[in-house]
Write a structure and sequence with these properties.
Layout (H helix, E strand, L loop, with lengths): L7 E2 L8 H17 L2 E3 L4 H9 L3 E3 L4 E3 L2 H8 L6 E3 L8 E3 L3 E6 L5 E3 L6 E2 L3 H13 L5 E3 L12 H12 L3 E4 L7 H19 L3 H6 L3 E5 L2 E2 L3 E2 L1 H12 L4 E5 L2 E2 L7 H22 L5 E5 L2 E3 L6 E2 L3 H16 L5 E3 L10 H17 L3 E6 L1 E2 L4 E3 H19 L5 H4 L1 H7 L9 H6 L16 H6 L5 H13 L10 H10 L5
Parallel strand pairs: 2-14, 7-21, 8-23, 10-11, 11-12, 12-15, 15-17, 16-18, 20-21
Antiparallel strand pairs: 1-7, 2-4, 3-4, 5-6, 8-9, 13-14, 18-19, 22-23
Helix pairs in contact: 1-9, 3-9, 4-5, 5-6, 6-8, 6-18, 10-11, 11-12, 12-17
Length: about 500
């Protein structure tokens, strides 16, 4: 495939007017000043720090309140542009403006087995294998942990997840810090991740801080409006150590947020403003992503809905709000309530990926692989979603109208009644003008399709997966010498 989809300009779809953005922003500031945020136990030292920095703390009620001036002063310290780096520098992610990148999401508790197609519990080998698939997919621009392995003890899960992806993927990696609660354990895991990356790449830890291959995701706030202890501490430890952080927030309209979209977006904006401001107070100029990922409650079952068209609208609106305060954003697309790669998965994913991309969202996760309301991933779904993402990015590329693309001389030379099949102009543009896909879509006539087995999209995608996994990785991303040293240092289980 010759088509390059990373970093194209979105912004063609803007669900909020300038006046509506200002209205939501002002209302969010009012929430922070009047209602404020609650906080869980275990954050006493952080609360004392914020109080010394000018936050109004009601200790008896367990409530933080922030003046608008304080929030705006701190948020203005956040970088408007920064880069998340890749191993080979060909997949660097230059965040900011309306530049669009799409990748997978993580922490699924089920995986569709690539051989049987049946759901089962994930294992560490799935993280590695899915990493190999994502590495080959041109339109998947970055990688998160795809699923939660059940064969890895909690105490070494984060280092094993990071190892499995750094061994299989050349693209930027984002992960969380899980299964630790004490501050000393959080600090240890952050230090170990830097050490592992340094050993795997041969780069110094200082260089990794300046040109990060790894970023952190933190669900710092429990909607509605409550700071969560362990994610807050992991967020602050990450920014302390120069690790970029996505401040993930995913309220569900109708349950953990008001039902109406305007109110849900306002509350989410308030949470994000507070999180960004706290990070900048903890370490000024820290690299953060506004991490709004709005969703809906299924009012019939009270379950999570991420595939609704309103989620695409909400994510596009989130980018507008993040752009307004000049902070790059992270959000979601590609979610579906479907349990398998089927028609429902296709239209829900296609609609939401296109809306988020056309909205200009910078770092769109969950765009590949996810099924069953984020509870499952499918190997073949990554291949299908890579093609959906590529098609959405083609929309962002627009239509070239330079002299070569207008082809007036070619039209004149061939003249009326001619044809362009063998024209050099056709040959020159045939592989670049139109999106060619990755091979998963069928474009053959019925007779040939039938003669080749009458395979559906899922079957074709599984064949591509098997072809990728049957080969040794094309690039040894960790040398044998470094791998031996890493295994001597850490409890690597892959």
């Amino acid at each position: 495939m010759s088509y390059t989809s990373a970093g194209l300009e979105g912004g063609q779809y803007r669900p909020l007017s300038s006046e509506q953005i200002q209205t939501i922003h002002n209302a969010a500031l009012q929430i922070l000043e009047t209602t404020g945020l609650a906080y869980e136990a275990g954050l006493e030292d952080v609360i004392d720090f914020l109080e010394a920095e000018g936050v109004n703390v009601d200790h008896s009620a367990g409530r933080l309140r922030f003046t608008s001036d304080w929030i705006l002063e701190k948020v203005a310290m956040a970088p408007e542009y920064f880069t998340l780096y890749s191993r080979d520098e060909n997949h660097d992610i230059m965040l900011g403006g309306d530049r669009v990148y799409l990748g997978n999401g993580g922490a699924a508790i089920r995986v569709l087995d690539p051989e049987t197609g049946e759901a089962r519990a994930p294992v560490l080998k799935d993280v590695y294998n899915i990493g190999r698939i994502m590495d080959k997919m041109e339109n998947i621009h970055f990688c998160l942990r795809p699923c939660t392995p059940t064969d890895v003890p909690d105490e070494c899960s984060d280092i094993n997840f990071c190892y499995a992806l750094i061994k299989s993927v050349s693209k930027h990696i984002m992960g969380g810090i899980n299964h630790v609660q004490k501050q000393e354990d959080i600090a240890r895991v952050v230090s170990e991740i830097h050490e592992l990356l340094s050993m795997a790449t041969g780069r110094s830890i200082e260089d990794l801080k300046n040109r990060p291959l790894y970023s952190n995701i933190s669900c710092f706030c429990i909607s509605p409006l409550k700071l969560s202890t362990t994610p807050m501490r992991t967020m602050l430890e990450a920014v302390k150590n120069d690790i970029p952080v996505a401040l993930s927030g995913a309220p569900m309209a109708g349950s953990t947020a008001p039902l109406t979209m305007a109110a849900m977006l306002t509350m989410l904006h308030a949470e994000q403003l507070a999180g960004i401001a706290i990070c900048q107070t903890w370490k000024p100029n820290s690299r953060v992503l506004y991490g709004g990922a709005p969703a809906l409650s299924n009012m019939k079952t009270l379950g999570y809905r991420g595939g609704a068209v309103e989620c695409g609208m909400g994510n596009a609106a989130i980018h507008q709000l993040a752009r307004y305060i000049k902070v790059p954003n992270y959000n979601s697309a590609g979610l579906t309530e479907s349990k398998i790669p089927d028609t429902q998965a296709g239209y829900e994913k296609g609609m939401n990926i296109l809306l988020a991309a056309m909205g200009g969202s910078n770092y769109i996760h969950h765009a590949a692989g996810m099924l069953d309301s984020m509870l499952a991933v499918g190997y073949e779904q990554y291949v299908i979603d890579d093609e959906i993402i590529g098609a959405a990015c083609k929309v962002l590329k627009g239509i070239d109208t330079d002299s070569d693309h207008l082809a007036l001389e070619v039209i004149d030379a061939i003249g009326p009644g001619g044809n362009y099949i063998t024209s050099p102009h056709t040959m020159r543009h045939m592989r670049s003008e139109y999106f060619m896909g990755n091979g998963v879509s069928n474009d053959k006539d019925f007779a040939r399709w039938k003669a080749e087995g009458g395979k559906d999209t899922r079957t074709r995608a599984r064949e591509i997966v098997k072809k990728i996994l049957s080969k040794d990785p094309a690039v040894p991303y960790i040398s044998e010498k470094a791998d031996t040293a890493i295994r001597e240092r850490f409890n690597i289980l892959l």
